[in-house]
Structure formats: C-alpha cells, structure tokens
Amino acid sequence: GVAADASINTLKDFEANWILEGYPGPDICTVSTTSFLPCAEVAVINGASAGIFIDPIGERFQIGDKLLAQLYDGTVKTIPNFTINFPTLVVASGTVPDLANQSVSFTYSSQFAASSSQVTTTFYADDGTITKGAACASCGDTLNPWHPNTTCGCTASSGTFSSNPTPNDTATSYTQTWADISLNGAPQGIYVVFLYGVASAPYAGTEQTNITTVNISDQKKQFYIDTSDTYVSTTAGTNATYSIKVTDGNGQNAWNGGTNSITLAIDQCPKSSTTTLTCYFGATSPGSQTLTTSVGVNSTLTVEVPSTTAGQTVYGGWIRASGSDSTGKKVTRVLRIRTAVSVTLGGTTDYVDVLGFAVFEVTYLDSNDVKGKAITGWFLNANDPSLAIGKKYGLVPWETS
Hints:
Blueprint: H1 8-21, E1 41-43, H2 50-60, E2 66-71, E3 77-78, E4 82-85, E5 89-91, E6 94-95, E7 102-108, H3 110-114, E8 119-124, E9 155-157, E10 160-161, E11 173-179, E12 182-186, E13 189-199, E14 207-216, E15 223-226, E16 231-234, E17 239-248, E18 262-266, E19 271-272, E20 275-276, E21 290-293, E22 298-304, E23 313-324, E24 330-341, E25 350-353, E26 356-365, E27 370-374
Parallel strand pairs: 5-14, 13-24, 16-24
Antiparallel strand pairs: 1-25, 2-26, 3-25, 4-7, 6-12, 7-11, 8-13, 9-12, 10-11, 13-14, 15-17, 17-22, 18-21, 18-23, 19-20, 23-24, 26-27
C-alpha cells in the first residue's frame, strides 16, 4: 500500500501504524533452525525514530504490558552474501593438456563468513540456441570446448577442484585453486561457460551465477554487448523490452569493420549434462525474439510475460549475441537480464534473520526508549499457544514487503 519511491520516513509512518492498530499479517513462517527461509528474512530500515516509533509505543503500551517480539541474532546482514571471481581463460586450440591451475577468489559478507555456510561451485556448459549445431543437438554446442560428450567432436572436463566446497571458517575472502581443467579439439574463438555457486545451510539456496569468458587461441576479432536495461519492471500479460547495443572491438580487435552480422536472442537456460539451471527465459519462453544486427547498432529484444506469470517475483534469463568473423571463427557474448513482474521496488539491502519469537513484558518506557524482559521461552512459530498472551506488532516478511 506504499508507493515504490516513498521516503524512509513515509515507510516508518506506515510501519508505525501497526503499533497503534495491530499487525494485520501475514505472519512470518515457522522458523527453521537449520535454514534461514526467505519468509523469515525481514528487510531493515535503519533507525527507530523516537517520534515515529517510540511515541506510538507509549500510546498503546504501558509498563507491565506484554508484547510479542521477533528474535534475531543481533546482526544486521547485507545482500549479497558471497561472490565468486573467476579469471578469463585464454588457452591454446587443438590438442590441449590440462590447463594451468586457476586461482578463483571468493568474497563473503562478514555475516556469511561468521556462519557455517560453505559454497560449492559447478561449471555449466555453454548450450545456447544460436551456436548449437544440428548434428549435436542432443549434447549441446558443437563448438563448446567444455562439453564432456565426445560425439560433439571435442572432449573436455570441468575440472577436479582442489577444495570444493569452500572451507568452513570465518575468513571474509578465500582463494581456491582449481586443477585439472582440460579440453581437446576446441576451435579458435570466444565462448562462455556459466559458473554456479550455491551455499549450504544456514544459507541453503543462496546462489550466484557468473559468466566466464573462454578465449581459444587468442581470438582477436570480437564485439561486445551492453544494455542499461538489465533489470526491467513489468506486469503479467505485458512485454519486457531490453535495449541492446553491440559495440566494436578496438584496433586489431575490431569486428571486421562491422561487416559481419551478429545474431541476438534470448538464450536457453544453462545446463551441464542433464542438469539445467532454473531460469525463466529459455527455449520454451513464449514470445522470445531472435534478430540479426551488426556492431554500432541499437536493437531491442522483446519477451512476452504471460498473464499467468506470478507477481512479486524477479525472473532471470540470458541474452546471447553470436557471430563469425571473416574467417569463420565464432565469437559469443552472453548478458544476464532480470524481469521484475509486479514487484514493488525497495531501497534497502539490509535484513535480519528472524530466529524465533518470545513474549516480553514492558519494564521501562519514556520518550526515547522502551525496555522489557522475556517472560516466555523461545518459540519457532509466532502462533504457538504459549505466546498468545502477547500483543502483536511487527514487520512483514522480506518477499512481501
């Protein structure tokens, strides 16, 4: 019920009404002690302004009153929780032994590092609709140097990582060595692979997907793609439109003066063997455009968002650009896009993990502070009968805020 561009004080006023009128719901989910469910991640607006929050508390509560409180671990957390940085690979073509060991850096927020969560990483093959060859439709991109299926004319392994998952310690950064990455018979060109990292409990399901560029035999002729519309807001039953610009390489890297055409399309979801990453766009995406363009041209790709698409959800996908230089060498670029369907945008990336609930009795109250003491135990369900003596007010879950 609040405008997306509302000021912080407007949001605080909105929340303060729950103190006076009571919290209408929905309730936060029953908390899990092993996994911080999204419905128990609550966005935080920094600062409890005395005139906005403390005064309404003084109007509704008196010393001795009992109220239901959400419990958290005392730490305000920040998104994102972790990132993975993998170097661009420049490798030779033909029969290639194992590549040199690669250093992959991980960075964590301090809260993520302090938890017991670990990150496991996986390569996903470049299996795009544009570069896939008809003879190898069952196993992916004909020119994909990472695909393990030998019937595609080349062999590859995605590597035996020296330490996967990451260790369970409190460091905020970590460098992992990946060894035994090999490929054989890959032709000259520029390709991509998808690098997928997923965290374990207590942040189970937290994930990052990165694009890694693979340059075979130092391919010079190339182009790039960019957009200011990587995040587009729309509604179900309408179209999401992405403005894409193809730019030229410089000097010896120029794309043959722009004379060779480039194909733009909504890509398939990344996959490795029979495992496919979840993404909204892909081969089955309705209304997905494919068009031909060239460097220096502004183009648009339009994707239909069906009327049955769920609202309050951000959907991810990929735009692929592909072309061959004057000697037939393939160059591929991939750009991540997101479509927000009926999402009310907010400005905060701070949140807390709700760990449970308890009833507190107000012991002190003035114009600046409210203090209390717990008079029940710690419960995972806000509707536990033992908490019924507490009056409710609180925040909505992150996903509905």
